[in-house]
Amino acid sequence: DLEKSCGIGEFTDLLPFARWAHECGMRLIQLLPINDTGEERSPYSALSAFALHPVYITLSALPLSSPLQKKVDQFSQQHRQDAMIAWLDVVRFKRSILREHYSSHFAQISKEKPFLAWIEQNQWVKPYAVFSLLKEQEEMKSWQEWSRYQNPTLARIDAIWSKNWEEVLFFSWVQWIAEGQLLQVSQQLSAMGVMLKGDIPILLSEDSADVWHLRKFFDLNNRAGAPPDMFCYAGQNWRFPAYRWSVIERDNYSWWRARLRQAAKFYSAYRIDHVLGFFRIWQVPETEQTGVLGRFVPAVPLRRSDLLAAGFSPERVDHLVDPLFPAERVAALFDGLGRDGRPWLKQVEGGWKIDRERFSSETALFNSDEPQPVKDALIQLYWDRVLLRFEESGSDYHPHWYWYDSNTFHLLTAEEQGALRRLIEANYQLQEPLWTEHGKKILTMMLEESDMLVCAEDLGVVPPCVPRTLEEMGILGLKIERWTRDWEAPGQPWVAMERYPRLSVCSPGTHDTSSLRGYWEETTWP
Fold it and tell me: Is 440 helix (H, G, I), strand (E, B) or coil?
């Protein structure tokens, strides 16, 4: 309702939208994630896997005092004609109104039995509220930059909760209001015959209450991302921490199960974001900036013993991991740059090697004072590997994404190149059974935990095990009309929709594409 909305779409705005959708014959409304992201605009950078964003609370549904209601009406009038959403203004304004209302009604709120019972029924609330309070006290810095409480225990969280009762209760109360409004709206939509479909992101921001107090489930030494592809040569580094799936599994997936139960309060269906990541996810060491030097996890590694058995000498194996660059290549790279990058390299018998003490990561280079042309030359050498080793003292290796195109590979003899190709191709064949097992375990848990309809976002470079497993488990995949083409046929024609798998959600686009109208009006279709 534009007459009441406060500068942004709100929970109760779903009601008139659902009535319109129903009149048009549509029975499902899909949402992007609506978790609390603070002042961060991306809905995928949540401060909590459970908390809802207060920005979607309908203030007019609260029993506000006349002065506060007047402020809300004035703000709503001020932003009613905005061409774009004044995101930060709305976030900060709503927070201020909620604080004022809470402060003037604290005595009553703090004694509301349904509210206090709700806190006890939802274990995520106390850690989230304490995290939110500390973050505010630390001027909204990441918890890794806090002056204290970076590694909390449950006892410490309880102590902070008790000591700061009025402050933490505010963050809890806001979530109670948000959950109550969304729950009521969801029930009304259901009565109309309109389903609400949520979005459960696979990953979580490092600066979140969950990572802060459930550290054991997250691998902060590695970041999740995507491997290189035709759109991004260097791959993607999303900077979200990877999961410690073995620890999560030993805990019977309790955190994931709780996430699903929370979502099931509101949704009849949900989208599994990046379902490929449940089979295998691209992980990059925390010290790197791009996605090039990553690997799939889980994965069956190449063993040093396999390389030795194939005829590679120990020295040759070491050079595949830590290459020796001929002097003429190094000279050619730095020719005309005025500098030779020597501080980052060390001369050895037969050529040059990267000085691993100085040049330990992309971050070290990118943060240096070197001119960009020198950085570009050095990064070519840093990326030029055949095999990657993620444990310095280990004997397990993973192929570099561009192993076949590296200068190091082309310096091998024809016999060595053939032997290496056969090893890597044989190793790849070992991955699918492992990925299938890993994905099935997680998806089985997700199917068990709720009766929501499960829709998997299976876009990207999809290994054969993914659609096969989704079909076996009765999970819907995703087809984006503009991308569903016969790429091998002349002219790359679109695939007729009647050929889509029955278990499919079909959409003209995603939140990463232009809108349907924008796509229709584009002068050149891909």
Answer: helix
Q: Tell me how far apart the alpha carbons of residues 18 and 16 are, in angstroms, rounded to a whole number.
A: 5
Residue 267 CA to residue 197 CA, distance in Å, equals 5
Beta bridge mates, 237? 225
Taking each helix axis from N to C end, the angle separating 165-192 and 14-23, rounded to the nearest 10 degrees, works out to 10
pLDDT, tens digit only, all 526 positions of the chain: 566 778 888 999 999 999 999 999 999 999 999 999 999 999 999 999 999 999 999 999 999 999 999 999 999 998 888 888 899 999 999 999 999 999 999 999 999 999 999 999 999 999 999 999 999 999 999 999 999 999 999 999 999 999 999 999 999 999 999 999 999 999 999 999 999 999 999 999 999 999 999 999 999 999 999 999 888 999 999 999 999 999 999 999 999 999 999 999 999 999 999 999 999 999 999 999 999 999 999 999 999 999 999 999 999 999 999 999 999 999 999 888 876 677 899 999 999 999 999 899 999 999 999 999 999 999 999 999 999 999 866 889 999 999 999 999 999 999 999 999 999 999 999 999 999 999 999 999 999 999 999 999 998 888 999 999 999 999 999 998 888 888 889 988 989 999 998 899 888 888 888 888 888 888 665 5
Per-residue CA distances from 83 to 43, 80, 106, 221, 514 (Å): 20, 9, 37, 42, 18
Q: How far is CA 44 from CA 215, 376, 445, in A?
A: 19, 31, 23
pTM greater than 0.85: yes
